[in-house]
Write a structure and sequence with these properties.
about 450 residues; alpha/beta; Gyrase A, domain 2; Four Helix Bundle (Hemerythrin (Met), subunit A); Rossmann fold; 3 domains; 7-stranded mixed β-sheet; 15 helices; about 50% helix; about 15% strand; globular; binds guanosine-5'-diphosphate; binds zinc ion; GTP-bd_TrmE_N; magnesium; nucleotide-binding; cytoplasm; metal-binding
Length: about 450
């Protein structure tokens, strides 16, 4: 039977724009939004009105984002249910945090296409319309991205399978205890085993959550710092990659005032580009600040684009930046190839490997294809993995893992209180189900198969 619980999701494609919408649908939408909204009392506002305010973490009164919230009451909404749309302004990270706050306050993460499904089930749209919307949603993800997601998910799937296997051993053991309650020591053993397994699996779940940097990369993009001394062409590159003039390009050294950040999609790879502020190099002191600034930006970078000016001899700052970036995944652009070269690839080989260097010109666009190729390579060919990045988690995965972890906490607490094993089993099985949901495995069949093969219950 169809349930009218309240679902939530990010309704805009990540990385494509600075604003994003978190959408809620279901009978508690307005109440949930109101719990985390500071501004007007949403419960009292008329339908189809929009309200300015802030999303806060109500527990600690911390502001998360400045937002506009629109309230649409049933039946005049896309799903025909009470709906709320939170328009966030703080960028990708803020949107994610707003969604997390919504989930922490009573909504459930929507399955892909679930809003449309509801619209369909509630008679708001017909099946062909629903399918058209689904196609649209799916065409947003590029093929390359799909491939990488399934590839990276392989490791998550294997890990979850391993955890569930571990849990199943214990579950099978407990099943026997319940069937033969006359053996007390068997029950004691089961309790101990459940306690141990729950603790171990919980720890591993926490580890997965920690190691899901990949999830961060999908949410926030690969943090990519463009560094180089003033006037090498950083802002020009930024503009070329974003496709529009946001960074100010000038002939005057050091005119890029602040760090400029932008999300771009290079061949299906989400990048969060950071153009480091230009610093005048006339005074040595100021130049040092430039290096320090680059260092600070680099600290948070996954990937570095170091730019050099081929039309001028290498100077001290160039050499310092070459040295500073040598242990990072990086690409070195020898830019302004169209001018008379003063520096060649050979000159840089003392500081870098040849496959790190690309000669470019932002005037003629030479080398830009190669740069894009290198970014693609970095993303798809495992460089990322070498930096402790093991799992790709989307919000649904994260949510299920958190729930499983919480259920296991219950198990641990219950085993320590000596609660009867068949009661503890409920939480335990729940955790196991939740993990199964991540990889979409049929819970019931698997359990039965396992039990039959191991214990021949039907005999
Ligand atoms: P930034 O200080 O590193 O951000 O450098 P900008 O992007 O502001 O560029 C400084 C100047 O160099 C501008 O006049 C650009 O038009 C010019 N420039 C950038 N790339 C190239 C290039 O490949 N060839 C030539 N000839 N000029 C370039
Ligand atoms: Zn600049």
């Amino acid at each position: 039977m169809y349930q009218n619980d309240t679902i939530a999701a990010i309704a805009t494609a990540l990385g494509e724009s600075a604003i994003g919408i978190v959408r809620l649908s279901g009978s508690e939408s307005v109440e949930i939004a109101n719990r985390i909204f500071k501004g007007t009392n949403l419960i009292e506002v008329p339908s189809h009105t929009i309200h300015y305010g802030h999303i806060i973490n109500p527990k600690i009164e911390q502001v998360i984002d400045e937002v506009m919230v629109s309230v649409m009451r049933a039946p005049r909404s896309y799903t025909t249910e009470d709906s709320v749309e939170i328009n966030c302004h703080g960028g990708v990270v803020a949107i994610q945090r707003v969604l997390e706050m919504v989930l922490a306050n009573g909504a459930r993460i929507a399955q892909p296409g679930e809003f449309t499904q509801r619209a369909f089930l509630n008679g708001r749209i017909d099946l062909s319309q629903a399918e058209a919307v689904m196609d649209l949603i799916q065409s947003r993800t590029s093929k390359a991205m799909d491939a990488s997601i399934s590839q990276l998910n392989g490791s998550l799937r294997r890990k979850i399978q391993q955890l569930r296997h571990e849990m199943l051993q214990t579950l099978a053991q407990v099943e026997v205890t319940i069937d033969y309650p006359e053996y007390d020591d068997v029950e004691e053993l089961s309790l101990q085993e459940m306690n141990q397994t729950a603790l171990s699996v919980k720890q591993q779940i926490e580890q997965i959550l920690q190691q899901s940097q990949q999830g961060r990369i999908f949410r926030e993009g690969i943090q990519t710092a463009i560094i180089g001394r003033p006037n090498v062409g950083k802002s020009s590159l930024m503009n070329r990659l974003t496709g529009y003039d946001k960074a100010i390009v000038t002939d005057i050294e050091g005119t890029t005032r602040d760090t400029i950040e932008e999300y771009v999609n290079i061949r299906g790879v989400p990048l969060h580009l950071i153009d480091t502020a230009g610093i005048r190099e006339t005074e040595e002191v100021v130049e040092q600040i430039g290096v320090e600034k680059s260092r600070a930006v680099m600290e948070q970078a996954d990937f570095i684009i170091l730019m050099l000016n081929a039309s001028e001899a290498l100077n001290e700052m160039d050499r310092e930046l070459l040295d500073l970036t040598k242990d990072y995944p990086r690409v070195i652009l020898l830019n302004k190839q169209d001018l008379t070269p003063q520096v060649t690839v050979e000159d840089i080989l003392d500081y870098a490997a040849s496959d790190e260097i690309i000669t470019t010109s932002l005037l003629t666009e030479a080398g830009i294809d190669q740069l894009e190729e290198r970014i693609e390579e970095y993303f798809f060919q495992g460089d990322l993995k070498s930096r402790d990045v093991n799992y790709l988690l989307n919000t649904r995965h994260t949510e299920l893992l958190r729930q499983a972890s919480a259920a296991l906490d219950e198990v641990v607490a219950s085993t320590e209180m000596g609660i009867p094993v068949d009661l503890i089993q409920i939480d335990y099985t729940h955790a196991w189900d939740l993990l199964g949901e991540i990889i979409g495995e049929n819970v019931q069949d698997e359990l039965l198969n396992k039990l039959f093969s191991q214990f021949c219950l039907g005999k």
